[in-house]
Amino acid sequence: MRLKDLVEIKKDMKKADFWLDKNFEVVNEYNKNNIGFKIVKKNIILSDFLKYYLEYSIPKWKLQQKLNITFFRNLEIESVKEVVKW
């Protein structure tokens, strides 16, 4: 399962739960150039959890690879589970 199966991820999404700005920092304010994250499967993942997970993980991902919208859509849920040890 990939993140895109649980979360709608796209630019210029006014009704997102939160956004990533151009520096891939989590923000709570809409900007048409930011990547929006809208949880669609709230019974599986909470927006606060995903927000904190991204804040924790993005710094190390920046060092390892190029981040873009496709990277986040294809993020394996198993990598999210590693952080919380489900």
Architecture overview:
- The protein has a four-stranded antiparallel β-sheet with strand order 1-4-2-3.
- It is α+β, with helices and mostly antiparallel strands.
- The protein has one domain.
- It has helices at 47-64, 69-73, 77-84, and strands spanning 7-11, 18-20, 26-27, 35-39.
- The chain has three helices and four strands, in the order ββββααα.
- 36% of the residues lie in helices and 17% in strands.
Q: What structural keywords apply?
A:
86 residues, alpha+beta, 3 helices, 36% helix, globular
What's this entry about, in short?
The chain is α+β, with helices and mostly antiparallel strands and 86 residues long. Helix content is 36%, strand content 17%.
Distance between the termini: 15 Å
Instruction: Encode the helix/strand succession as letters.
Output: EEEEHHH
Please give the order of strands in the largest beta sheet.
1-4-2-3
Helix run count: 3
Task: Tell me the layout of helices and strands.
Blueprint: E1 7-11, E2 18-20, E3 26-27, E4 35-39, H1 47-64, H2 69-73, H3 77-84
Antiparallel strand pairs: 1-4, 2-3, 2-4
